[in-house]
Amino acid sequence: MSKKIKALIFDLDGILVSTEHNHFIAWKNTAKVLGISFDKYDNEQLKGISRADSLTKILKLGNKTISEQYFNELLTKKNDFYLNSIQALNQENVLPGVLNLLKKAQEFGLKCAVGSSSKNARLILTKLDIDRYFNVIVDGNDVSHPKPHPEVFLKGAELMGVDPAECIVFEDAQSGIQAAKAGGFLAFGVGNPALIDQAAYYLTTLNEFSLEEYA
Ligand code: B16
Ligand code: MG
C-alpha cells in the first residue's frame, strides 16, 4: 500500500496542456532575429524554465550579449507572438486524463494546485476552463526563484496547508522534476521519456495514474 497523499500539484505546460510547440516557434523567431541557430534539441533545455532564463540560455548558445533594454524588448515580443499563437486554446486542448483526475481528486477530497513557471498560467487556465478545479495557483508571477528551485511547489503546498511529503507533483520537464525532488515532493514524470531515470515514477499520460492507490 502506497503512502497517503493529501494533495496534487500540476505543472501547466506539458501536463495540463501542451503549448511547447508554440513556445518553440516563438523562441525560434527570437533566435533568428539574433542570428542564433535554434533547434528542437535546444528547445528541450528551455522546458519548465522562466521566460528570462530561456532568453539567457539562447544568448549563451549564440555566445552573444545584448543590452538590458533589448533583452526586455525581445521578451515582450516573444510573449506577444506566443499569446497570439494560443488565442484559440479551449477545453478540447486539455491533455488526456487531466479532467478525469481533477474530478476524481474532488470526489476524494484531495486539494489540487497548479505550479507553473509561466506568467501566462492564469490566462491559459481560464481559456481551458479548468481554473475552478484548483484550490491554489502558483505561477511565474508569484516566485523569485524559478524552477529548478522548489519555491513554486513549496509555495503551493504551503497555501494548501499540506506537507511536501504528502503531495504528488506531476511534471514534464527536467527542471520541474529537479524542483519537486529538491522540495521533498513525490515526483511523477509524465510524457517525456527523458524523465524515466529522474522521476520517482513515470507515466506516458495522466490516464495511467490511479488515484485509488494513493488517496
Ligand atoms: P511564460 P510550465 C513553462 O511552463 C514552460 O514549460 C516554459 O517553456 C516557458 O518558458 C515558461 O513556462 C515561462 O512561460 O513565457 O508564459 O511566462 O511548464 O512551468 O507550466
Ligand atoms: Mg512543463
Whole-number tally of structural domains: 2
Gross morphology is globular
Q: What is the CATH topology classification name of the largest domain?
A: Rossmann fold
- The CATH architecture classification of the largest domain is 3-Layer(aba) Sandwich
Total strands: the figure is: 6
Number of helices: 8
- Superfamily at the CATH H level of the largest domain? HAD superfamily/HAD-like
**What molecules are bound to this protein?**
1,6-di-O-phosphono-beta-D-glucopyranose, magnesium ion
How far is it from the N-terminal to the C-terminal residue, by CA? Answer: 10 Å
Order of strands, main sheet, comes to 3-2-1-4-5-6
Uncertain stretches of 5 or more adjacent residues: none
Mind summarizing the main beta sheet?
6 strands, parallel
CATH class membership of the largest domain = Alpha Beta
Average pLDDT confidence is: 96
Order of SSEs:
EHHHHHEHEHEHEE
Measured on Cα atoms, how large is the radius of gyration? Answer: 17 Å
* Strand content bin: 5-15%
Helix content: 25-40%
**Structural class, please?**
alpha/beta
Task: Give a written overview of the molecule.
- The chain is α/β, with parallel strands linked by helices and 215 residues long.
- The chain folds into two domains: 7-18 and 90-213, Rossmann fold (3-Layer(aba) Sandwich); 20-85, DNA polymerase, domain 1, CATH 1.10.150.240.
- Helices cover 40% and strands 12% of the residues.
- The protein contains eight helices and six strands.
- It has helices at 20-33, 40-44, 51-61, 68-85, 98-107, 121-128, 151-160, 174-182; strands at residues 7-10, 111-115, 136-138, 167-171, 186-190, 201-203.
- A six-stranded parallel β-sheet has the order 3-2-1-4-5-6.
- Strand 4 (167-171), helix 8 and strand 5 (186-190) form a beta-alpha-beta unit.
- Helix 1 runs antiparallel to helix 4 (68-85).
- The longest helix is centred in the middle third of the chain and has 18 residues, at 68-85.
- It is globular.
- The model has no long low-confidence stretch (mean pLDDT 96).
- Residues 11, 13-15, 47-48, 172-173, 176 line the site of magnesium ion.
